[in-house]
Design goal:
two-stranded antiparallel sheet, 7 strands, 12 helices
Length: 525
Amino acid sequence: MKSKPSGVERVFSGWTTHSWLRAGVTTTLLVLAALGSLSTWAMVRTSDLTTELTDRRSPALIASIQVEKALVNQETGLRGYGLTGNAEFLEPYTEGVADEKDALRSLRPLVKNDVQAQTDLDEIERLSSRWKQRMGDPVSSVAPEEAVKLASARASEGKRTFDLLREAMEDQQTHLQAERKATTHALRNSVTLRNWTLGICALVIVAVAGLMFEALRRGVTGPLTRLGTAARDVAEGRFDRSLDGAGPADLRQLADDLESMRRRLVQELEFTESARRRLDDQAADLKRSNAELEQFAYVASHDLQEPLRKVSSFTQLLQRRYGGQLDERADQYIGFAVDGANRMQKLINDLLAFSRVGRLHNDHRPADLDEILEDTLGNLSVAVEESGAEITRDPLPTVLGDTAQLGMLWQNLLSNAIKFRSPDRTPRINISTSRTGDTWTFAVTDNGIGIAPEFQEKVFVIFQRLHTKDAYPGTGIGLAMCKKIVEFHGGTIKIDPEYTLGTRVVFTLPAAETDPAAPDEAGQP
């Protein structure tokens, strides 16, 4: 049994990839900022100590040593002049005085911020001034004989004063050396701190990079890879593969959405498969039913032929033998019977032809429509001559179809155009063609009585008539047969609603693969 998640776990479980990245980057930046600040302070501190050591501590110690050297030169030269009276010994004294002034001029600004060194320098200057007043200036400014006497008289005092001066200089140099040593130690510590902080920064960067890589691998790329693999399995057809999510909240949400989509697809596929099976069953039932209906229509029309011929034959015999021997009403009844039998004969023949479309005639091959149309016009020559119809046409192409059925198509279309002509004008019929891709479009246009818009679809239904048999004879199967033939060849047929000067029947047929009437690459036929 799973334990209930704590409050902290609930909080973190709601974090998205963006939240984790933001928290990780923020933490890393804070750590790097702290280490960077420490490193910057260490580098600044190192620079300051280096500057102090090179620009103040070491130059101050050197200047103090130069002061001591200058005073020692003064004392040595003055002592030699006082003992021998030789003026050449005053040269070191004179140079020492000048060197002392230069060294003090350099030393004063270097120790102005060091109270102890400033105090030592003041004491050195006081003792140096006292020695010069009591010994240096009096001895160096008199003649050699007097200088020897004065130096001999003040030798003890001069020695005591210079010893004090030497001790003061030693104290100052000891202090300056201690300060220089302390600064050097502090500089060494600062350099060590700087190096450690920079090293730690480098280690932190490497560690953060490694942690980020591992966190992204475990929290983002790993779950995404597993989710992608599962999604590809589903895409390849393994719909039973569940899409489980892990990692941040947004990736888990994405996995949940994909899982919901998978379940919906499974449901849709199950429904589609069920519908397909039902559709296959219905298609099989419909195919069987159509086959039975076609067989029934064929058998019924075929079996009705013989008794109908007997009825028609005996009715005609009755009309010839007893015509005029009975009363007028009897002759009228016999005429009705003969006409009905003839129309029934025609209806059965048309129904038999309709049932044979697509069943007995199914020989698709390249068919030359020019030749088929010529044969059709030959069959209709009497009707054309009696009606005075003028028939024009474009050159017709070769299409893929059954020659016998295409002949029936032209026969019905042209016979309808002649039959339903206008009594007020000479019938004119035009056959035009055009090609779009692998399909030929044909239009049979006449100037007859036309078809009202509300009946332009109804005329393609079997046994549908718009006129009485007395006005226009027929069975109402012609255009229904045309529709069946065209659709059997993979085309469409309709009445053009925009043409109002008669009737225009438009239908399409597939072009043959090697059609001599097809346009070439330049677009010319």
